Hints:
The protein has helices spanning 3-27, 34-41, 45-51, 55-69, 72-80, 87-97, 101-107, 110-120, 126-152, 162-181, 185-203. By secondary structure, it is an all-alpha fold. Helix 1 (3-27) packs across helix 2 (34-41) and helix 6 (87-97) runs antiparallel to helix 11.
Amino acid sequence: MSKKTHEESLKTRQAILDSAMRLFSRRGFERTSLSDIAKYAGVTRGAIYWHFEDKGHILVELCESIAQENHLKEKMDRAASPEEDDPLGRLREWLLSCGDEASIRFYCSAVFALIENIWAGTSGDEATRNRIIKFYEQRRGDIREALKNAVRKKQLRSGADIDLAEDCISMFLCGFVDIIRLGGNDKLTKHYKVLVNRVIDDLMTL
């Protein structure tokens, strides 16, 4: 594939994601069709099938795209990298980014609410729900790899309870997102950095 063709392919893919984001936000999952997404993206349905299997695939790729835009994946990859000397520091940076303005906007968005409804089984279909669950499990797996790396680099003790540490981080983030979605932004965001530091420090005692 030539450079120009590759760039055009990436541009088409992004147009599809942008269109889906807009339509999912306005109409929800069920009322948005692939034909609608294609129309608003200015592409054919065939172009969509070249990049994505179905609507559920597009939705999960939207989550991946947002994580990349906010550099969340990059920071987590660094935390798990064998070349990283400070995995806990990178994990701390990742957690801080999970509470920045861009991430909070996503948590409060219609698309995030849509994802929650699909997870709960009140919207979407079983295949899409399984995709979302798999996406979440992969993120938990990334956290686990970063924690194992911290053990290898002797930032956590050799007998550290990785399962417990993983649960602590996941529950902290889930609680943060729930409170944000209930409207508790100001007070919680004010203390977020302190809370993240406390979570990371507590990992060393597990």
